């Protein structure tokens, strides 16, 4: 049963730890969560008992953030939602082409900017970041090949509901529309929209290969999972277990990223087998067309964030 | 007094439904006419929907129109039913008080967050339940007092 | 722990506490037993459960039906169907079924059907000499068509919690909806023959044409809704908006309903009807969290797969469960609590999602006409003055017809899955 002890619990007590994540069985977050559970339970000699809740069983991501703050969920593996909800002043991560490759992502998150984000999230919402893991880059799928930015003109595309995405696709000359992911297959089939953008895993699972012909490898967004712990839970743990949670949070990144890299290769092969053609894209043309977008939203982030990130990447 | 309250709540709920439909219509309409949908309209329509749910629940509560399972109560003599009704309303009152109290930290927790498509604090969404349970509590106490006075 | 939750629920029901609050109390009992878990989660889930774009289709489909009703459209449907099938044996009973079927194309709920068509048809039947029990039973049974034939509120709920395309579920419900109507009409035909129920004189072709014209706006509502979804113009929620707009235009310009106070009253009624369903949805959503936290889904999955992993057997076991649960808990609560829990099982044994969703809808609708908690039953008993026992006795033969449809659908999945595959694919 859950512990009632206040900060710094005792050494012989066992602690139950609930971990919420969105992915179904077999997703990167699911497999990594299982590995995390195994490591934590082993190294704590069973003093922490981890219970996994995948598939958004305990709630949608946006609400899990509040459950972490209020103490109803102990840990979560989440997309950028947690940044948007709990550290919006640093949530530049949805902007397109912030990073050119995954090394840049990990460098910035584990550097001084990452430290600032961590502090902000803890202060704002009592949510502690303990680690990160990469997500597959988002690519654009369509019925016609798209090789450079100018070819996006007039494209009817489904995007998730966020102003920065809307502005980005408008800047490219597309006609963005909001459609629920669950209705997207039908919308593509019926021609409500003719394109969509997602990581490969989210293109493969709902059989978008049946209604789309090309994967244009735009890699316009390199998002990531964040491993977060409720501070209410963290403060219940004795010092040695706190240490363990932090260590394993950091340690899971490598496992997660290796898994993702293998998964991306696999999805690409499977989608090709299903007849999708992968298109090499002139990424620079996209980057050029979108370079002012982060500045348009600069007011919503702390001063100079975009420049700080560029500087940190330049120093790699 | 309850008639007046019900009338006011009904007008608000009806108006909110008009607003919800209008927003959704604007969202669909702009998609075809202006090429590109009015994203925030759909999101705020949902907020009206939630308010309709919880303000509507108050109306149903006052009018005793919430769905119930009356297996036991239909077979028992009226005197026993009166006692059961008294017990139920005490239990309901306790429940409402807890939900009311616990909804306040929820509103606070969400107040720092905004809608995805527009900078509007989510406290305007989550306070719907606080207002709803608050009104139900006031009504329950009011009808208790009235019953006692009648005796 | 779960035993306490279930006992609390049972006590709440026995004490006549509203279903929504009873579900909330059951949730509360869990938090009392787990002091480490803050109770803030209860209000949090109440609100987030109602906060859903997809579920907005509920008031929209309800509103479209209500506006149509306020313009006297039910009467128009009645007259048209009477001109069409009134001259067969048991004509008015056949009219009842056919009118429910047409009404179901505008409305997403069995309750709207039972109260809309029910009021008009029961009176007509009794006046013509049908038994009250039979009239009530025909009404109750045919009201189950409402949520099976699109649009459908339970399907919107199932699609929402299970991530199944609502559009596909709607299309999957077309053939089963027609099958329900046919099975019942055949049954009514034989009963009427045996009991020598009356028939009416045959309507002339011009008469039929006139009534058809009068009912055309109502008849075309499902065309607008389904056509919009199928033609790729709208998602189901948007189709609801268009249906409302269509109902308003027809009401104001064709049926000349210019009493805007009356139209606003339809909005108020719909808001109350919405609250009645959605308050339970919010409460069920908070109880569902408790079941998720206790990993009841895994227990259920393990329990059922230990018996069999044959998809048909698993499907039958699930449907039997829904049939039992449907007797005591209303469809919305059943869907919110049990469907997400069952999804991993459904997917792992390889049951087609649309097949599952449509069958679950029908089986849960049967619960609406069974004691102790059957909302359609309550409405019909209120109209007719029958006791629930009398109503149930009259219903018995119709349960056989309903179950026959269920069995056909279980063993011939194509009755559900074929049409969506042809129209949407995938
Ligand atoms: Na229907
Ligand atoms: Na029932």
Automatic annotation (TrEMBL), chain B:
Species this protein is from: Marispirochaeta aestuarii
Chief localisation class: membrane
Protein name: Tripartite ATP-independent periplasmic transporters DctQ component domain-containing protein
TM spans (from-to): 12-34, 40-62, 83-104, 124-145
GO biological process terms held by the UniProt record: C4-dicarboxylate transport
Keyword Cell membrane: yes
Upper classification of the organism: Bacteria, Pseudomonadati, Spirochaetota, Spirochaetia, Spirochaetales
CC terms in the record's Gene Ontology section: plasma membrane
GO molecular-function terms, A-Z: transmembrane transporter activity
Keywords: Cell inner membrane, Cell membrane, Membrane, Transmembrane, Transmembrane helix, Transport
Pfam families, per database record: DctQ
InterPro entries hit by this protein: DctQ, TRAP_DctQ
Annotated compartments: Cell inner membrane
Family the UniProt entry places it in: Belongs to the TRAP transporter small permease family.
Record-annotated Tripartite ATP-independent periplasmic transporters DctQ component domain positions: 20-150
Membrane topology: Multi-pass membrane protein
Automatic annotation (TrEMBL), chain C:
Topological category with respect to the lipid bilayer: Multi-pass membrane protein
Transmembrane segments: 6-32, 44-64, 169-191, 212-233, 239-255, 275-292, 312-329, 336-356, 362-383, 395-419
Gene Ontology MF terms: transmembrane transporter activity
Location, primary (coarse class): membrane
GO cellular component terms, semicolon-separated: plasma membrane
Membrane in keyword set: yes
Location(s), subcellular: Cell inner membrane
Record flagged with keyword Transmembrane: yes
Keywords noted in UniProt: Cell inner membrane, Cell membrane, Membrane, Transmembrane, Transmembrane helix
All copies of domain TRAP C4-dicarboxylate transport system permease DctM subunit, residue ranges: 6-414
InterPro entries in the cross-refs: DctM, TRAP_DctM
Protein name: TRAP C4-dicarboxylate transport system permease DctM subunit domain-containing protein
């Amino acid at each position: 049963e859950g512990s009632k002890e206040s900060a710094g619990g005792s050494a012989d007590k066992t602690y139950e730890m609930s971990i919420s994540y969105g992915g179904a069985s077999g997703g990167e977050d699911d497999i990594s969560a299982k590995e995390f559970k195994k490591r934590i339970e082993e190294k704590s000699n069973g003093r922490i008992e981890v219970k996994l809740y995948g598939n958004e069983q305990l709630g949608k991501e946006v609400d899990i953030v509040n459950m972490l703050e209020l103490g109803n969920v102990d840990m979560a593996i989440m997309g950028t939602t947690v940044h948007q909800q709990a550290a919006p002043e640093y949530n530049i991560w949805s902007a397109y082409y912030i990073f050119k490759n995954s090394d840049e992502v990990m460098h910035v998150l584990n550097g001084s900017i990452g430290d600032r984000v961590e502090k902000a999230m803890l202060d704002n919402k009592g949510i502690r970041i303990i680690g990160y893991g990469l997500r597959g880059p988002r690519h654009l799928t369509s019925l016609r090949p798209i090789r450079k930015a100018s070819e996006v003109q007039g494209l009817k595309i489904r995007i998730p509901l966020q102003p920065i995405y809307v502005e980005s696709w408008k800047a490219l000359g597309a006609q963005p529309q909001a459609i629920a992911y669950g209705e997207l297959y039908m919308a593509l089939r019926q021609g409500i929209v003719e394109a969509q953008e997602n990581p490969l895993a989210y293109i493969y699972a709902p059989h978008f290969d049946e209604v789309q012909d090309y994967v244009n490898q735009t890699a316009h967004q390199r998002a990531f999972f964040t491993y977060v712990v409720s501070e209410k839970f963290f403060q219940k743990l004795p010092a040695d277990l706190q240490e363990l949670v932090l260590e394993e949070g950091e340690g899971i990144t490598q496992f997660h990223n290796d898994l993702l890299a293998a998964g991306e290769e696999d999805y690409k092969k499977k989608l090709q087998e299903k007849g999708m053609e992968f298109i090499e894209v002139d990424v620079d043309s996209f980057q050029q067309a979108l370079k002012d977008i982060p500045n348009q939203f600069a007011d919503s982030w702390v001063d100079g964030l975009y420049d700080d990130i560029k500087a940190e990447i330049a120093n790699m | 007094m309850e008639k007046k309250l019900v009338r006011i709540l009904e007008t608000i709920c009806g108006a909110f439904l008009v607003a919800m439909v209008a927003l959704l219509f604007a969202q669909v309409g702009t998609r075809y006419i202006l090429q590109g949908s009015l994203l925030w309209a759909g999101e705020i329509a949902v907020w009206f929907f939630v308010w309709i749910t919880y303000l509507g629940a108050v109306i149903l509560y006052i009018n005793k129109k919430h769905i119930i399972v009356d297996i036991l109560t239909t077979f028992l003599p009226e005197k026993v039913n009166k006692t059961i009704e008294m017990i139920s309303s005490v239990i309901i009152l306790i429940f409402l008080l807890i939900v009311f109290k616990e909804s306040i930290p929820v509103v606070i927790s969400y107040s720092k967050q905004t809608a995805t498509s527009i900078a509007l604090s989510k406290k305007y969404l989550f306070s719907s339940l606080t207002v709803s349970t608050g009104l139900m509590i006031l009504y329950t106490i009011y009808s208790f007092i009235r019953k006692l006075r009648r005796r | 722990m779960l035993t306490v939750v279930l006992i609390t629920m049972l006590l709440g029901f026995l004490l006549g506490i509203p279903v929504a609050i009873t579900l909330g109390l059951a949730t509360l009992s869990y938090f009392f037993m787990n002091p480490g878990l803050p109770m803030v989660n209860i209000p949090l889930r109440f609100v987030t459960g109602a906060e859903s774009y997809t579920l907005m289709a509920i008031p929209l489909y309800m509103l479209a039906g209500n506006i149509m009703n306020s313009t006297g459209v039910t009467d128009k449907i009645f007259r048209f169907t009477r001109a069409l099938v009134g001259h067969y044996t048991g004509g008015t009973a056949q009219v009842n079924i056919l009118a429910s079927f047409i009404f179901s194309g505008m409305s997403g709920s069995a309750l709207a059907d039972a109260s809309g068509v029910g009021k008009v048809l029961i009176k007509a039947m009794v006046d013509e000499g049908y038994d009250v029990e039979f009239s009530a039973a025909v009404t109750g049974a045919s009201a189950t068509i409402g949520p099976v034939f699109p649009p459908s509120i339970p399907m919107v709920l199932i699609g929402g919690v299970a991530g199944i395309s609502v559009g596909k579920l709607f299309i999957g419900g077309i053939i089963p909806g027609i099958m329900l109507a046919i099975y019942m009409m055949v049954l009514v035909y034989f009963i009427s023959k045996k009991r020598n129920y009356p028939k009416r004189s045959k309507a002339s072709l011009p008469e039929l044409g006139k009534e058809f014209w009068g009912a055309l706006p109502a008849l075309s509502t499902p065309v607008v809704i389904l056509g919009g979804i199928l033609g790729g113009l709208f998602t189901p929620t948007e189709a609801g908006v268009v249906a409302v707009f269509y109902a308003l235009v027809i009401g104001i310009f064709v049926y000349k309903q210019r009493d805007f106070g009356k139209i606003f009253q339809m909005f108020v009624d719909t808001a109350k009807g919405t609250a009645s369903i959605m308050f339970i949805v919010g409460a069920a959503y908070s109880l569902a969290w408790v079941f998720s936290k206790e990993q009841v889904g895994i227990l259920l999955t393990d329990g059922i797969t230990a018996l069999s992993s044959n998809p048909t057997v698993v499907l039958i076991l699930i449907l039997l469960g829904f049939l039992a649960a449907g007797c005591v808990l209303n469809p919305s609560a059943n869907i919110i609590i049990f469907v997400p829990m069952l999804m991993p099982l459904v997917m792992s044994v390889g049951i087609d999602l649309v097949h599952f969703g449509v069958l679950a809808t029908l089986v849960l609708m049967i619960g609406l006409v069974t004691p102790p908690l059957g909302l359609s039953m309550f409405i019909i008993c209120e109209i007719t003055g029958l006791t629930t026992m009398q109503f149930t006795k009259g219903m018995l033969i119709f349960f056989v017809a309903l179950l026959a449809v269920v069995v056909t659908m279980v063993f011939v999945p194509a009755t559900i899955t074929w049409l969506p595959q042809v129209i949407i694919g995938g």
